[in-house]
Amino acid sequence: MRRHSRIVRIGKVKIGGDNPVLVQSMTKTDTRDISSTVKQILSLEDVGCEIIRVAVPDKEAANAISEIKKQIHIPLIADIHFDPRLAELSILNGADKIRLNPSNIEDKEWIVKIAKIAKERGVPIRVGANLGSFKVRPTNVVKALIDSVANEIKILNDVDFDDIVVSIKSSDVITTLQANMKIAKMFDYPLHLGITEAGPLFESLVKSSAGIGYLLINGIGDTIRYSISDEPTVEVEAGFSLLKALHLRERGLTIISCPTCGRCEIDLFPMVKRVKSEFGNISVPLKVAIMGCVVNGPGEARDADIGLAGGKHSGVIFKHGKIVKTVPEKDLYNEFKKELIKLIKERSSS
Amino acid sequence: MRRHSRIVRIGKVKIGGDNPVLVQSMTKTDTRDISSTVKQILSLEDVGCEIIRVAVPDKEAANAISEIKKQIHIPLIADIHFDPRLAELSILNGADKIRLNPSNIEDKEWIVKIAKIAKERGVPIRVGANLGSFKVRPTNVVKALIDSVANEIKILNDVDFDDIVVSIKSSDVITTLQANMKIAKMFDYPLHLGITEAGPLFESLVKSSAGIGYLLINGIGDTIRYSISDEPTVEVEAGFSLLKALHLRERGLTIISCPTCGRCEIDLFPMVKRVKSEFGNISVPLKVAIMGCVVNGPGEARDADIGLAGGKHSGVIFKHGKIVKTVPEKDLYNEFKKELIKLIKERSSS
User: Fold this and answer.
1) B219 pLDDT higher than 90
2) Contact (CB, 8 A) for B194 and B220
């Protein structure tokens, strides 16, 4: 069962409550380079990114937000560290949310000022804790992260601000999930999930899916981000891949394909790749199975909308676990493709 | 806390109890092609594979086991469907474990015969359930999978055989974990985990890590396999990547690297790739951090043994969160590499 969280509005989208879990990413461009940043955000929108965060390390970056916002279509979060003037400037330039750790701000009058302007403009603040925030390594990291977040929240609550999103990330999966399981019970603010510095694509897919997946399966999490040392679009694709796998979102193509074994007598992997490259961008939800053998193929992939399974010099095409056509191996992919296109058209028009 | 499971011996390795969670894979070659199969198993051993499964679709494949076994160094599981004679033949040819669903075998006298020979030779049997085993789609899939496994176990127990490993896999993550959470409480046999037909590399890393990860975090699972429609070595690499992330195994290089953002002023991803390609095969456990900026870099990667963080025209090298050296950007990678090699030598000799 999903954790109860309050609804927070970020620009035109809402998170928390019964709203779908949204997929975020963060730009890897220099925010001051407006055209590169916009280009990257538009490419992220193309793969479905629903909220974008940009780093705001200086005034020029904060001022760039205004022009960036004009050219994009999804809410923008300004990521700020230490300097409260950049928070104010980002809000004035139209940021839809700011990420700010109030305990990093030494001049407490600034907290009052930022909370006031954020409230006036309906801009929520994401607070969070990172291991890096502590001067020395705490003996109990989970407790330290939670205490830190609770302190951030208190600072904002004390100036009558509660339009808050919380995020606790660590590069350690277990630390991240322990801290989130606890904070989820302490407050009802929406939670943004991620494993920080999760590494290259391969490693991050493993770590982030295990960590974010565990929390989502436990009903925790309102937005997610895969941090990956790679192109930003893969972060979004991974996010949707996980949400689809956990039945939290429906979206485009899902491939069920077997790893092959000594029973497989067809060249399966190239067909898997072709389906992915030719149909990876469809918008209707469709489950496609590509199986090495007929023995278990159709039955095991019974939940697939359509599938193929290889045999000896031939293959079968099946729908919902039932064989509808047997074709010679050389025609297998093309016949399958025809059926697949037909199915996509039916689905799209219904 | 880890689930209590009984210990089962598979050739020279033990699973269950307090034994480490082992990483399995399955060959994708034609088992009858002995040289290709051996070559693939040896390449899997190279990346750490601890148990290998091969498909046994006919007598020739069963007979090949004897020669394959001579040339490999890890226990071998014979994967059999329907034909009990292949189970007997595989055991006689030296298989260390057989995968067999007794309910698939119509002649019940064969069950007695297989159980007898398996017991004599100390060969355990893995039973399991797949959605494909059901003639029609059950209304309650989780219950059907559990009932099916319970039935398989009963058939073996009835002939006084209990050297059993259980596996329930589905291509659906939620189904897999719900069924495993329940079966884990019903029996104390070791559990082999996996998401079946999990798809291409990207999709499988997401689905398998979420599903297998959830169960492992809950203390469930004694062996694991990533099913991936790709080269078999990635299945093993993914397995260890997950076990390392969950602190269940220690092994070689762990990369902590940031996704970069507008604050990063160095070309980080090529350095991540270089570290992975140059040091991906080290055997000593070592955590390496590669961070885009100095602001949070060393602090957030405090748990890393060694790391680098980019700055403006320079970078820093840090150990355990403390900066030990500042170097011009052009020398950053080479200086870092020197320190890394030094550290690996220290670790290896201690």
Assistant:
1) yes
2) no
Q: B253-349 belongs to which CATH class?
A: alpha beta
Q: Is the pLDDT of residue A299 over 80?
A: no
Q: What is the pLDDT of residues A82-96, one digit of tens each?
A: 789 999 999 999 999
Which CATH class name applies to B8-245?
A: alpha beta
Contact residues on chain A for B263, CB-CB shorter than 8 A: 55, 57
Cβ contact A27–B55 (<8 Å): no
Q: What is the CA radius of gyration of chain A?
A: 23
**What is the Cα gyration radius of chain B?**
23
B210·A242 Cβ contact <8 A? yes
Among chain B residues, the shortest Cα distance to A299 is held by: B132
Q: How far apart are the C-alpha atoms of B74 and B41, rounded to whole Å?
A: 9
Domain boundaries, chain B: 8-245, 253-349
A97-139 confidence digits (pLDDT tens): 999 987 778 788 898 899 999 999 999 999 988 777 777 788 8
Same fold yes or no, B8-245 and B253-349: no
User: Which residues of chain B lie closer than 8 angstroms to A296, CB-CB?
Assistant: 81, 130, 132
d(CA B171, CA A56): 42
In terms of C-beta distances under 8 Å and separation of at least 24 residues, what long-range contacts does A306-309 make, across chains too?
A306/A336, A306/A339, A306/A340, A306/A343, A307/A256, A308/A271, A308/A332, A308/A333, A308/A336
Alpha-carbon distances, residue B141 vs A109, A250, A302, B178 (angstroms): 59, 21, 12, 10
Give the full edge-to-edge strand order of the sheet including A223-224: A164-168, A125-129, A97-99, A76-79, A51-55, A22-26, A223-224, A192-193
Whether residue B82 is predicted with pLDDT greater than 90 in this model: the reply is: no
The residue written with tokens 């060694």 in the block is B306
Q: In chain B, what's the furthest Cα-to-Cα distance? A: 77
Contact A57, A264 (CB under 8 A): no
